[in-house]
Amino acid sequence: MNHLIEKKLASEKVFEGNLLTVYCDKIQLPNGKEASREFIRHPGAIAVVPITNDGKIVLVRQYRYPTGKIMLEIPAGKLDKGELPDDCVLRELEEETGYVAQRIRKLSSIYTTPGFTDEVIHLYLADQLTLAKQCPDEDEFLDVEVYTKEEIKDMIAKGIINDGKSMLALLLAGI
Amino acid sequence: MNHLIEKKLASEKVFEGNLLTVYCDKIQLPNGKEASREFIRHPGAIAVVPITNDGKIVLVRQYRYPTGKIMLEIPAGKLDKGELPDDCVLRELEEETGYVAQRIRKLSSIYTTPGFTDEVIHLYLADQLTLAKQCPDEDEFLDVEVYTKEEIKDMIAKGIINDGKSMLALLLAGI
Fold first, then answer.
1. Which of A24, A174, B41, B99 has its CA 20 to 30 A from that of B33?
2. pLDDT over threshold 90, residue A136
3. Does the beta-carbon distance from B142 to A4 stay under 8 Å?
4. What are the residue ranges spanned by the domains of chain A?
């Protein structure tokens, strides 16, 4: 596979914010020529399909500033430093929805956009839920909504649910 | 839904490269407090599941510098300025794989990572393929590989194919 590999020559951090760290690296292409690669370093994240005891799916509706749209997604969140994905699933699910899961199962780990970020999202299914108290981050505003599997399928088919990770996780969960 | 909307107060372009444009906006939260939102503006992209006349799937293997990995994905590429997604599908498919499609069908349009970018990928299926000549961009190195549906399913189950858009498009295409 060496005929495909790009080699790092130099790395420059061009922006560091609270959320995003942006790099512009000088690289050597497989043919020996030089090029640049701009990309975002990301801590990784989880996303989870929560299934209630009566077989419904818990979604969150929130404004996504980059898209300028209110979107319907499965609960998700970034890994805290050093946090294990399994722990992050339980924490984010409870913070965003108030549900506590007795059981979680990993569905897959995916690269969201390998052309410009190293972000990996670990996709999970969670069930045996009990309702505690929602406590989102202080700059996070979201509505918790519960749908049947048929409603979810319909909303995917109509493009009402159009977040990639949510669609993929719901399909992998057999919805 | 007004209780969810975040209002732009000021916008600052903090990095502009060849690929990525990064913004840091000052916003007003639904509760009136101020916060910041960092995000990437993206021109949008297409990704396509190409099905050969004998029912196999065409994938591309390439080094994805941000992830540091050689990855197996469906053909994909960014929209040129003013380019329609349908035209981009035909162009990228031929450039990356050498295949010309007589027929394309839209599967869905998805947000890849609405937490930090407005990137939309339009997912397509393409068939009735004829083989012309591969002509990738000059800084793009990739191998074209053809797999049966059973091999694709197996590689998704084993995490060998772990690119989100590719997995979702393959599932939506009924693979």
1. B41
2. no
3. yes
4. 7-41, 45-172
Would you say residue B136 has pLDDT above 80?
no
> Helices B149-157 and B164-172, interaxial angle, to 10°?
130
Cβ–Cβ under 8 Å, residues A10 and A89: no
- Which residues are CB-contacts of B174 (< 8 A; sequence separation ≥ 6)? none
Helices A164-172 and B164-172 cross at an angle (nearest 10°) of 60
Identify the H or E element spanning A129: strand A120-131
The secondary structure of residue A163, as a DSSP letter, is B
> What is the model's pTM?
0.96
A contact residues 29-88, partner B, Cβ 8 Å cutoff: 29-31, 33, 35-40, 61-71, 73, 76
Residue pLDDT, tens place only, B14-35? 999 998 999 999 999 999 999 9
| Distance, C-alpha B11 to centroid of its chain | 26
CATH 3.40.50.150 at A45-172, yes or no: no
* Alpha-carbon span A48 to B70, nearest angstrom: 27
